[in-house]
Amino acid sequence: MLLARSPESVRELAATWERVEPLLRGLGPAFVEHAAAPGGWIGEFSEFTDLLEDWGRVLTEAERRGWGVVGLSQ
Q: I need a labelling partner for 50 at 20 to 30 A (CA). Which of 18, 35, 44, 68 fits?
């Protein structure tokens, strides 16, 4: 699967990340109740937040540079 986002779309995503990031830690109880899968790909809340924070950094830097982003999966 290939996902591509234009620079304009990246600006919108980066702005959304800026609003959401401060609220991320408060999602721990909901994650544990609805999404935790110990031993899975994203089994623990810390793995979930690490993934989102890494993508937040990608979006923030791409936005700063005026770049689009591309995501690939198997």
A: 68
Contact 38, 44 (CB under 8 A): yes
3-state secondary structure 8-57: HHHHHHHHHHHHHHHHHHHHHHHHHHHCCCCCCCCCCHHHHHHHHHHHHH
Q: For tokens 């089994």, name the residue.
A: 43
3-state secondary structure at position 68: coil
| Contacts for 38 with CB less than 8 Å, ≥ 6 apart | 44
Enumerate the β-bridge partners of residue 70: 4
User: Three-class SS of residue 71?
Assistant: strand
